[in-house]
Design goal:
The protein is of the alpha+beta class. Strands 1, 4, 5, 6, 7 and 8 form a 6-stranded mixed beta sheet that branches. A 3-stranded antiparallel beta sheet has the order 11-12-13. The protein has a two-stranded antiparallel sheet with strand order 2-3. A hairpin with a 2-residue loop joins β5 and β6. The relative contact order is 0.11.
Amino acid sequence: MGYFTTTQLFLDITTRLDVKESQKIDKFLTLLDDSKVRENVSKYIKNDTKKGGRPNVNYYRLFATTLYAFAFSKATLRQIEDLCKFDLRYKYLMRNETPTFSTICKFIDKIIYPEREDLFSKIIKCICNKMNISTKTIYIDGTKFEANANKYKYVWKPLTFHERLSKSCCALINKYNLLENSVDEKYISSKTIGYAISHIKEKNLSPKNSKNLMKALNNMLLKIIEYEEKEQLCGPNRNSYYKTDTDATAMCLKADYYSGLGSNMHAAYNIQVGICEGIPVSYLCTQSRADLHDFIDVLDKFYNIFGYYPANVAADAGYGSLENYKFLKEHDIKSFVKYQTREGNVSGRYPDCFRLDENGKYVCLNNVIGEIVKLDNRHPKKANSVFIKFEGCLSCNFMPYCKRFMRNLDENFKIFEVVEDFVQLKQEAENNLLSKEGIEIRVNRSIQAEGVYGDLKQSYLFTRFRRRGMEEVTSEIMLHLLGYAIRKLFRFFETNKKCNFRSAPSDLEPEKFKKPSAKKLAKKGSKQRHKQYKD
């Protein structure tokens, strides 16, 4: 008798899904019905009749199964195929149908990719209504995920080489006067070189010179065409791309598994997400190496989904620009967006040299009020800026810090170039951040915004995309974010409670900046100035 083999049973024991689990899945399917995503799926179903051959897979069940897989597994195509064969939950969702990985791949390419914006919008709105999620405050943050590209296969935008070759080419064209009224181009085009080559025969050059000139211009033409192709792939807003994924950009990642933190370039995409009460309600996939210019697009996508802008917006210092502050002001959104020098003001280690007081006047670290002046011998470097002059610097203890970037310290004044709108909007954001509401929002931002990325990267080990190309990568991150929201929804089904986030105590006082030490700042300023002007 075998110890590991079992005896043959006359009747198979049927395995059924747990009742509680089936009830949660039924609620999830009901939510998909309520969201009306069937309208998006039904557009791609030609007919329901079976005319022989392999039976058609039910697209509605397959869509629900795909979302469920992105919520509770690593969601590779072959893994979803195995789950549909052996996991009771997926067998329950598919009604014992077993799609192959190629069928799932075709379904994602055919339906989810083109319909991703509408699918995300409908499902997220339905989840927010079901869980009673407040969209009053949105927390925006970004991170970089590695692309599915090979190591060191990136190509830099060849602007410098293009410019150098253009000088040589223009010099050659002008030397033989191949083009009339020719102007030296910084980046000469292949079309210009082609015109020049077509005029060589008209110049009656010797056969040897004509041959050499033709050969030189043809070689330049081939190189310029190569440069133009690379520049076109890069586009106007980035300087690199990868050979195996031309939409991926070379970026430094926080976790660098090759040789330390941020020391190597990797193919990556920049992902921006807006979160309300722990639920991702807006997302954006870009090629930007910084977060600064993606802020408005995230809010616009929020508006496209819900039809209105949120009342409050919280974000870190990577989004603190004049353009972003103006956008919030124009749309009546309360700003809790930090600016880049805020950390120095909070700690008192590197504070701003001046600020706006309660009366709207410019006050320096020594509490001296500055005045707007006009200078005849100096032009502003920034648009819509003015010059602010502070007197009495020679008797001020903060003078070495305020003049740390100046060579001459003999003047009894200091002039700053200021964009008034930017200073006023930063001060409004600062007042909001220091208030009781601002303290609560700042704490919750670190919990909610960072929590989404932490869960994706640590709990579900999603650190690298499996698909290539901007369209496919955008759809993949959309599915992962929907899966994250569905996990929150199932937790809500179990406990009937939303996630608890920090609420400010009733006796909490508004925060105040630490008073800067003149002695420490003067020492830092002198050391920094000596390092800069040590000669």
